[in-house]
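We modelled the chain as a single entity of 541 amino acids. Its sequence is:
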Amino acid sequence: MDALEWIVPRPKEATLGSACVDLTAVRLGDGPANAVTALRAALITATGADVAVEITVGGTDLPPEGYTLTARGRRVLIAAADPAGAFYGAQTLLALTAAPCPAHARCVPEADVRDWPDLPLRGTIEGFYGTPWSHADRLEHLRFSGRHKLNAYVYAPKDDPYHRERWREPYPEEELARLGELVAEAAARHVRFVFALSPGLSMVYGDPAERAALRAKAAQVWDAGVREYALLFDDIPPELSQAPDRETYGTAEGVSASAHAAVCRDFAEEFLAPRGAQRPLTMVPTDYAGTGRTPYRERLAAELPADVLVWWTGSDIVVGEISAADMTAAAASYGHQVALWDNFPVNDFDFDRVFLGPLVGRDTELDGVPLAGITANPMVQAAASRIALTTVADYAWHLAAYDPARSHARAVRLLPGASALLPLVEACSAWPPGADQSPALTVLCAAVLKGDDPGELRAELTRLAELPADVPGPIAAELAGWVRAARDMGAAGLAALGLLAGDRTPAEVEAALALAESHKANVLRRVIPPFVREALERTRA
């Protein structure tokens, strides 16, 4: 297999030779601390080793976060535009060492790589409803992000009470210490840690004391190391609900945008600016989906500080396709550059399902589009989300080369446990949520009911029915309920085939179907049960 297939995201330009550079023991030179640390942790470094790995920063014509990697003879050189580029070059080098080679314990093919990202913002936002990720989940997610060149993580779990309902209250010391650990881990992986507050359920926007409380909460996490912030006004009533605010801002349609803009302006001027914050504020408007102009957006365009970035979810809240035209129209409607808050592969609207397929339907021709980047909203299942998020990283880094099927195949291969569960992954890959859960199986079921040979359908159902229940690792642990559901759904489909062949009784098929449908986890519930019921009807006719 081509060694490039072990690198996600795929590099812009890469040429690999047939010879290898042996990295069994290397001499590691100086360079940015994070890149050197990443390599030292994975490579055997030895004083006096013949093979040298060198890292340089600056003096290139590369865009930000770009790097070149040259591996030839007894030398590997990573030349980067900045420390982040050096870190990403190190990740590419480590990914190349994963390609199997029968001759060396650890090596890379001779290589010339020139690489940089297309989108400046590439990340995730823990912004779902439901059980927030654990601290361990978040730490591992930040490590995952660094490996795949995702450069932002937004802390915004809806069910963290100190983020939303109790936004005025300071974090307890134990929670604050954990946030500090996350900030440090993110910095080590060149991941921007963005702390979000969502005060809109109860804030009196025009009250100076309320604005001071917001700044005080932000100051607490600033002291823990946070340097980038977001204010979220999503999923709240569209109009002002507090009587003092109605007196201050009025009651005209869309006037809540004036209140939200005022809070953002106060936060930027009274909190971020005095501290010399390097990055501007990001905000989520209440009117966060769709592309048309509205009274809310017109006020926001006129009153929100020009450098504030606006998050937007697409033409709707959860969508199958987002075009360049949609992005451009949305930015025009807000009067600001937008970032895509992509509600993919989030499952908080249907916890019975998991979405394990690739990112699809996102335009890849974005030249001149006022899009800062993409932050994907993952599932409650942190480890299982990495299958889809790997493809998000691939898309955001190299738009023109993004191929959902190829990217998905690489993601499954790279994430421990995913390959062993491939039949389940395929059965849960449909997007958007309303799409046919498995077009291929739907076609096979229909063909069998028309009298075609059942061999191919039987083979696919057998793969589901024989899914292993003892796969190690966090992905398999999170998906255990869906594995059980898939096994029983496959068995119900096989029972229906047996009924059509005269080998099973209706009672046996009904029992198999009842067991398959008893699971809370939804695997092919809209595909297999209709086929089984049709088979039962035909035998009763």
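As a brief sanity check on the tokenised model: The first helix runs from residue 33 to 42. Residues 131 and 380 are 7 Å apart (CA to CA).
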